[in-house]
Amino acid sequence: MENSEQLKEIVRQKYSEIALQDKEVNQSSCCGSGCCSTEVYNIMNEDYRTLDGYNPDADLGLGCGLPTQFAKIEKGDTVIDLGSGAGNDCFIARAEVGEDGKVIGIDFTSAMIEKARVNAKKLGFHNVEFRQGDIENIPVSANIADVIVSNCVLNLVPNKDNVFREIFRVLKPGGHFSISDIVLIGNLPDALRKDAEMYAGCVAGAIQKEAYLELIKSNGFSNIAIQKEKLINIPDDILKNYLNEQELINFKTGNTGIFSITVYAEKSKSCGCGTDCCN
């Protein structure tokens, strides 16, 4: 497996390509990674179409949950979406915050930012903005967000600890997040875990579920809860690109599971360690 900077560049290139693809192409691949299946299926993506604020031009079919549905967003809130893509979750959040709230989308790739800005302009939204940046160093001030959401993005980041540290910094005291992501129970076969293409496709970058939850706890969050969990089944014709027949049988009959989870956690109103500890 490549180092962190090489992995980031792979993700940047891959998702720049995805920004120019149709939703149907993205849905028939592993998070749009290009490891396309001949089956007609949707590995991870949830159906947004019934949610207020949904805009089909912003839905690239890349998510693995509906974090905005669980995020307890209120009118007037400031919401930040990490890995905002073409703006899908931002526009859902905008329907929740109303005219008096604000939504900021952060994305790693310029192509996604450009696509999201075009969508926002079409919709006439003046309280939704998009900033290009690395979510290991979120380009916003401390203590600014009431709510942070993210949809199938942290699994793409090599240093997830940095991201949760940044989320804690950016949230207001008393703020919270709702994040959908991919996690593991048991160990992936080496061929999947070490493959950079599968990393860009969300799977190889996933970590153990318990380790993921421990990162949240160790970064100071409280009231941690799993709001939704579902098993992800990767079709055989994708797995056969990485596993021989016996490895495939072992993988499918073993104790390893790939799951989409939506996790909620809060930043305490009072850090309990002095007036500056939330900064």
Essential attributes:
alpha/beta, 279 residues, 11 helices, eight-stranded mixed beta sheet, 8 strands, Rossmann fold
Describe this structure in words.
- By secondary structure, the protein is of the alpha/beta class.
- It has one domain (about 5-240, about 255-265): 3-Layer(aba) Sandwich (Rossmann fold).
- Helix content is about 35%, strand content about 20%.
- The chain has 11 helices and 8 strands.
- Strands 1, 2, 3, 4, 5, 6, 7 and 8 form an 8-stranded mixed β-sheet that branches.
- The radius of gyration is 18 Å and the shape is globular.
- The two termini are about 35 Å apart.
Helix and strand pattern:
HHHEHEHEEHEHHEHEHHE
Give the CA-based shape. globular
Sheet with most strands: 8 strands, mixed
Mean of all residue-level pLDDT scores: 82
- CATH fold call: Rossmann fold
Write down the Rg: 18 Å
Beta strand %: 15-25%
- What is the tally of helical segments? 11
What's the CATH class label? Alpha Beta
**Poorly predicted runs:** 26-42, 272-276
Q: List the domain count as a whole number.
A: 1
CATH architecture: 3-Layer(aba) Sandwich
What is the first-to-last residue Cα distance? 35 Å
The counted number of beta strands is 8
Query: Oligomeric form of this entry?
Result: single chain
Q: What would you call the structural class?
A: alpha/beta
Q: What is the helical fraction, as a range of percent? A: 25-40%
CATH evolutionary superfamily: Vaccinia Virus protein VP39
